[in-house]
Specification:
The chain is built from 5 helices and no strands. By secondary structure, the chain is mostly helical. The chain has one domain. Helix 4 runs antiparallel to helix 5. It is globular, with a radius of gyration of 15 Å. The termini are far apart.
């Protein structure tokens, strides 16, 4: 049952990367750093101070881009591929105790795919007020 819960949490975190790319990474990093989120082997870097600081700066830049039109357009172009990668990484980080083949297959398909679907859906509804 723990594996199923990890898969559900992984899909949820990955999908949230489609809305905001760096905010879910920041939350996961802070939760890992505080000991509230256990990550898979090899993803311990997610709970380090450098990762938390980097994700905080990236999240602030993502928020600030709303007020700078050229930066918003630049980040909109980069958001889709970055969201897919972030979704796959977050899924892989929280999906513990899975067979390695299943782990990475689900990370790419379920994690990256759910982030891509949400990112694509939000791009359709994006209204440029500039």
């Amino acid at each position: 049952m723990d594996s199923m819960l990890a898969v559900i949490v992984g899909i949820g975190l990955a999908a949230s990367c489609g809305f905001r790319v760096f905010a879910p990474l920041l939350v996961a990093s802070a939760a890992t750093h505080a000991g509230y989120l256990d990550v898979a082997h090899g993803f311990d870097w997610l709970g380090t101070w450098p990762a938390t600081i980097a994700f905080a700066i990236a999240a602030l830049l993502e928020i600030a881009a709303f007020y700078i039109p050229w930066l918003d357009n630049l980040l909109d172009g980069l958001a889709s591929p970055i969201a897919v990668v972030a979704g796959a990484v977050l899924f892989a980080a929280v999906a513990v105790d899975l067979d390695p083949f299943l782990h990475w297959s689900l990370a790419i398909i379920a994690g990256g795919g759910s982030a891509a679907i949400v990112q694509g859906a939000t791009d359709e509804w994006h209204v440029d007020l500039a």
